[in-house]
Amino acid sequence: MCGYIFLKSNIKKDHNSIKKSIPKIENRGPDQTNIIHLQNKTLIHTRLSIVDINNGSQPMQASKDDINYWILFNGEIYNHIELKNKLKRKYKFKTNSDTEVLLASYIVWGEKCLEKIIGMYSFVIVSNDEEIFCARDLTGQKPLFYSLNEDKIVISSIPIRFDQQKDISEESIADFLINGYLTSNRTILKEVFSLEPGFSLKIKNNQIKKFQFWKLEDYVKNKNNNSQDELLRKTDHLLNKIVKNYKNQADVPIALLLSGGIDSSLLLRYFQKNNILPDCYTLDTEDSKSELEESKKYINPIKHKIIKSKKINAEFFEYVYGNIFSQPFSDSSALNTSILIKELSKKYKCAIGGDGADEIFAGYHDRIIHLGGNMIFNISFYRRIISQIISRIKNKHLIKKIFFSGYRYPIFNLNIINDLLSTNFKSKDLFSYESENFKFNSKEKILIEDFLTYLPNNINIKLDEISMHYGVELRSPFQDRRIIEYALSIPAKNKFNKKLSKILLRKIHSNYLEDNSYNSKKGFGLNYENFLKRKDMQNLYKKYVEKNSKISKFINNKNIDKILNKNYSAKRWNYLCLAIWIEKNT
User: Between 495 and 386, where is the model more confident?
Assistant: First the structure.
């Protein structure tokens, strides 16, 4: 796990000024920082040492046929041992690191290496023949940003513009106000882009070629017609194999994030099945949503590390949303997640969690349970219009009963956004659904929407930014390529029905563990109204939403005062997170 920055420029001062960005990626790699200059290129790498601690330093170099290659890599390649055995005949290895295996894979197989590697990754490979190649993993567990003009290129783990200026994008502000996070390939900075998950990028002679090397539809359309028993057996076998693989691919101890839910307790069972007893970390939120009692059922008290969720004050809120994230982010679960990872980092630098299971096994019960006969969102033309209607309705219970389609509704509607920003964005500019590109039934589409949008842009951004901020590598077995491809081939009808979500995992859970397999999801989210009404939070709001704050450069203050006055909903939360981030990072 690491952070990196690659710069190509013929202007000398650019190479000096790019070093000012190093502090922003040092938390990603607290163990080592290396800088290499190659003619008109600068390669910067900060390392969190997990595999081959003594020999896996980066940037790493290798040569073949008079071409020198350099790699900057963030992530883990879980099948690097198998790949290494295949490559030995054509490449002489100097280390035991997965970084060298990834580099050798590209040297020997070229772009086809992406068909063979299994892992979470973001990397850039440069060579003295002036070719630049980079790629990002299937679900966007690791970030990759790029920005370029005719003379300069920046590729990095955080958003950096080619001219290193911070020119905020109004379209991205609008996107954030709608979702609470950024979608598609947008970033908060103009002319900086996020490479989409499952895509690669090749740059040579100022020509850019973007290629989608992994396509979800290849697996969704080829449905698995096996019996339910066979689906259960295969899913169980794959998950056990993956967890064993993840545990063995590290030269440091690994902990487990254990909640009281199905996903993480199943992972614990697979650890135990392989005679591994990890330390398990559980956050006690000390309220009705606490999963402490459920988690106690699964683990020996000696191995159970219980972290108390101290009262989250305004100062901590300000720190998390202003200092941890490289772009605006507002999911309320980030607060408790930060507490948990911070405590874990005092003893561990690598952990495993259950994130990703909901998106591939249909775990969001409240959002999918009514999908049965709902046809309203099958007509693409009406989706954006209905999203706008939904955003104006205050009774969320009514929304679920009347309009419930499984799609997440916007926090701010388009009319309000245009008033705030003095813009004229159209619905089609901001309200787009990735699943509209596929000709699948409504049940499949909502699962696809979660997988393509919510997982990479919310869940994985949160996990990556928080874990990296505290110097922890967080692995997600449910986002392994092997289980993703198999799960996508399973028909939606085998994953959920009108009464039950996540059917397959619940049944596997019941086979291994007693009760609890039918409990509702709780999560780390907070009650907006109760939290925002506190005096310290109201003072924080006044601090960042006053006339001379930086966000006032983009937002009409009079209009926002009318909207948020005595409004303690997601709107105020979302806007406050944005205001804090802009104040601290621009």
Answer: 495
